[in-house]
Amino acid sequence: MTMQDPNKPTLFSADQSSSRQLRDAFGRFATGVTVITAASADGPVAIVANSFSSVSLDPALVLWSVDRAARRFPYFDAADHYAIHVLDAEQHDLCTRVARNAHALQDVAHDLNADGVPLLEHCLARFECRRVAAHDAGDHVIVVGQVQRTAMRDGAPLTFFAGNFGTVARD
Hints:
Elements: H1 19-26, E1 31-32, E2 34-38, E3 45-49, E4 53-56, E5 61-67, H2 73-78, E6 81-86, H3 92-100, E7 111-112, E8 118-119, E9 125-137, E10 140-152, E11 158-161, E12 164-167
Antiparallel strand pairs: 1-11, 2-3, 2-6, 4-5, 5-10, 6-9, 7-8, 9-10, 11-12
C-alpha cells in the first residue's frame, strides 16, 4: 500500500462528478459563523450561514448567500429586513439548534427590533439590515443588505473549517 503525500494537492475538475471534492475544497477556507434572523408569518425564523461578507463602507453594505433548495429559502427570499449575528465561540449550541430547526428561536431568548426582526444576545457583532438587492448565483441567491444598526462586543469567534467548528485565539 502506498501513502499519498499529504503536501501534494488533490487535482480535479469542478463539475457534477466532483461536487463532494469541490465542497471539501471550499471548506478549506476558514470562516466565521453567523445566524441570520427574520420575522415571518410563522414566527421568528433563523438560518446558519458562513457566506457573510462586508461589501462597502459607504453606503454600509453586507452580503450573504442562501441556497434556493433550502426549506428556509422562502422566508428569507420574502424578508425585507433581517439581522446577521456573528457568533461567539460559546454559541456553538445555538448554532446547532438553528441548523436543525428554522423555528429554534421560539425557544431562545431574543428581542425584536422596530422592524420585528429577532435580535440575539451575546454575539460578537450584529448587523440589522434592510435588503437592497438579490442576485441569482447558480443554486444560491446573494442577498445584499444595507446596514441600519450595529452592535459589537469582545470575545472569541465561532469558526468553521473543513467541516468542523473551532475558534481563533487572540494574541
